[in-house]
Amino acid sequence: MPTPNPIPAVFLDRDDTLIDTDGTTADLRVPGDLLIPARVKLLPGVGPALRSLAALGYPLVVISNQGGVSRAMGTLHDVEATNDALRAHLLPHGVTLAACYYCPFASSGHTPPFNSDHPWRKPEPGMYLAAARELHLDLSQSWAVGDKARDLQAAAAAGLALKRCILLTRGPAPQPLPWGLTCPSVVDAARHIAAASPLS
Ligand SMILES: [Mg+2]
Predict the structure, then answer these.
(1) Which of 148, 150, 169, 184 is most buried by its number of CB atoms within 10 A?
(2) Would you say residue 22 lies in a domain?
(3) Which domain holds residue 39?
(4) Whole-number Å distance between alpha carbons of 62 and 178
């Protein structure tokens, strides 16, 4: 069977990009890694925004560091269950994710075998490269959206164009800005992608 032509995707960070961890992890040791499915809550407008991106023909791929596993905050099962909860929250919006990639490794952790560096941990590009290989994606025409610089550093290292790397920032953009552009939310990022998309 011939390999399909690669197509562009929209890569999305998970925590504080698609789902809210503000105020939900105050009792956890390190905020930002949500490993509790019952606490999954989409950020405002995420469902319709992702539906609009899917309607343009973009596969939606979640790319998420989950170093909390390396810090014994949860298990691989907890990560999978939390990702399943995200999928369940998106279903009523007619959104199906193409895949969820995550990296449980972090050298700052203390739980073997996850307390080590790993080529998948952002800002390393490993998850983007694996997704491109497995899902036949065109990285050079893909988009990335995330709330941390490392989300976009990893995307750029994988070969995404800086102008298609969108940093979510609620306040003033950090300077200098070495990657594409900033938006206040996924909703605004989706509008920008739609306006700039040759698929629309
Ligand atoms: Mg994040």
Answers:
(1) 148
(2) yes
(3) 10-196
(4) 22
Pick the catalytic residue: 15, 78, 147, 151?
15
5 CA to middle of ligand 1, Å?
30
15 is catalytic: yes
Say what the pTM is. 0.92
Q: 2 lies in a domain?
A: no
- Coil, helix or strand for 182? strand
Domain with residue 127: its CATH number is 3.40.50.1000
Cα of 70 vs centre of ligand 1, distance in Å, is 17
In a domain, 3, yes or no: no
DSSP state of 13: -
